[in-house]
Design goal:
disordered C terminus, 15% helix, single chain, two-stranded parallel ribbon, 298 residues, Collagenase (Catalytic Domain), 6-stranded mixed β-sheet, alpha/beta
Length: 298
């Protein structure tokens, strides 16, 4: 199993922020490293260069960030703030197909997500407590100003924002913001100009983050940290499926956070502590930002 990466740095009220290795265009000479200071050891043996996943910040007992099994219904929503090149009716089946690629792995353990309708939100929304109902948005940020005002760099193609239980690692909500104000995406098999981005390659990568995976160091993997403009990667490789199947091989069962004591076992191994809210950082929300980086001058 690959060495996991911690998901965030706790601050006030149990809320944590972090960012992943930035996503680069393939013409860059080398990937940037985690802003938190975690480095990609280029001298590692080939066998170690593979998938990784995110964990909670607990140094003694880190828990993987992942969705729990058995929730009555997992859904995702699509914002009506869509790009000029395609409407939501065109985009919806592409996102569904990307979800199906991850869900349909041979291990059969990745939770199923289905389309839950549209939303009028124009940016990612984050829950305030562990018991909040998730919306799991895909939203196109059409404005350059709005994108930058959110603290995002103009070079990022998209950002996946995950809210999770800081104790158990259970993912509570995950939203994907797409930088539509500064990039043009193409949506079918007719390749766009060199300066445009394959939406299907981008969204299947972002959904890898959505399900809890970090970047891979296998060049051909969907979860590799660079966007290859010449050969966009849409199809999952063995490395991608091995990673997500390992992540969900022993995922705990979901427990309704509004029932009983909020679902925490004595050992913290199951459920979400909705009644604990954000108090004191115990079973609070952690927010992880998983960013993809676009083209910059070398």
């Amino acid at each position: 199993m690959q060495k996991p990466r911690h998901a965030g740095r706790p601050i006030l009220s149990g809320l944590a922020f972090s960012q992943s290795v930035r996503y680069l265009w393939a013409m860059r000479p080398a990937p940037h490293l985690l802003a938190s200071g975690l480095a990609l050891a280029l001298s590692l043996p080939a066998a170690a260069l593979a998938w990784t996943f995110y964990t909670t910040e607990d140094a003694e007992n880190p828990q993987p960030l992942r969705w729990y099994q058995g929730r009555p219904a997992y859904t995702w929503r699509l914002s009506t703030a869509t790009p000029g090149e395609a409407d939501w009716a065109r985009i919806q089946p592409l996102v569904e197909a990307a979800h199906d690629a991850w869900i349909g792995t041979e291990c059969g353990t990745v939770p199923e997500f289905t389309f839950g309708g549209t939303s009028e939100a124009t940016a990612a929304t984050l829950p305030k407590t562990l018991a909040d109902e998730p919306d799991n948005l895909v939203v196109f940020v059409n404005s350059k100003v709005q994108w930058q005002d959110s603290g995002n760099l103009s070079s990022w193609l998209a950002i996946t924002k995950i809210a999770s239980d800081s104790r158990t690692g259970q993912i509570i909500d995950a939203d994907i913001e797409v930088n539509d104000g500064m990039y043009t995406f193409w949506y079918d098999d007719r390749r766009g100009p060199a300066s445009t981005v394959d939406f299907r390659a981008m969204i299947v990568h972002e959904l890898g983050h959505f399900y809890g995976l970090d970047h891979s160091t296998v060049d051909s993997a969907v979860m590799e940290a660079r966007y290859d403009a010449e050969t966009p990667r849409r199809a999952l490789t063995d490395d991608d499926t091995d990673g997500v199947c390992a992540l969900y091989a022993d995922a705990p069962q979901w427990v309704d956070p509004n029932a009983g004591d909020g679902g925490h076992d004595d050992d913290g191994g199951c459920g979400a502590g909705g009644r604990a809210g954000l108090a004191g950082g115990l079973a609070g929300l952690a927010v992880t930002a998983l960013r993809r980086r676009g083209r910059q001058a070398a």
